[in-house]
Structures are given as C-alpha cells and as structure tokens.
Input
Amino acid sequence: MTWQKGIDLIADGAERLERLGVQIAVLGTGEQHLHDMLRSLAETHPNIAVRIGYDETLAHRMVAGSDVLLMPSRFEPCGLTQMYAMRYGTLPLVYRTGGLADTVTDCADIHAGTGFVFDKLDADTLIHGAERAVALYHSPDSWQKARVNAMTRDWSWAHAAKDYVKLYQGLLKAGA
Output
C-alpha cells in the first residue's frame, strides 16, 4: 500500500461508498500511515474489512469473489491485477492511466465494456464510477454481458502480434 495506489481516495469516499451499499475488502502491506488509516476506517465503517499483510492465494480468492475491483492507482505502467480480475469476471473500476487505460474498456461501450474508467483523480469522480458500477450491477443482463466481455478478453501475444502487423502494414502503405 502506497500513495501511488490511491488508497486515500477510497478513504475520502468511504462514507459515500457505504451509503451505496458497497462493501470494501482490502488486503496488502506497505506504508504504516496507510495501515493506520485503513484500520481506523474499518473500525468506524462496518462495510470495510482490512487485512494487513499479503497472501497470494487469498488475494486471488478475494478478487475472484468480488463483483468489482477498485484500483484508483495514480500511475500504473502495466498492472496485472485488473487483468486477473477480468479473467475472473470481476469488473475493474480504475483511474485512466498507463496500463489500466490500455486494458480496461469502459462499460459506457455496451458491446465491449469490461469495467469502469474514471478520468479525474478525486473521490467524487471515483464515487461516480462506483455509482455507475452499482447501477449496472442492478441490470443483470448488462452486468453479465460486461462480465463475459471481461472474461473473454484476449491478452495473448497472438492477439498483440496481429495488432503490430496491422500497424506495420499501415505504415508501409503510408510510405513511412
């Protein structure tokens, strides 16, 4: 847990997330002041559970058993957790940055959406993303479509190689 991961945004929005009926489970280790902040939140908000430490098996179980993965990272060059989440059918709620922006397609695209993306790094915008997630959750057919989109997303090199071939062919045609 570090400032980079946006934990403070979750803390800033904790009461509003609670009013949405959202439950939050946090697993991780890092900066002591963030441990203290999260423990304090868990003591005052029954919808928040915190476990300081890290357990890879538990992490995968938590992601697989969740409806939404909240990942408001300030920067994330690649990020794997959102890809694991999508494979499990857990829709990521992410800030549009780096690898998160590259891998999560916002559910505003009803045909290809795989999660929820927000563009301003503050608690209000994060809460708006959570409201969108809750609304989609209450539309079972749309929720299931997004989950299937997420689970069937192709991360293989074969897919990436086809994209590179298209790029190079376009450059050759343009005379670059």
Summary: Residues 3-174 form a domain with the Rossmann fold fold (CATH 3.40.50.2000). The longest strand covers residues 24-28.
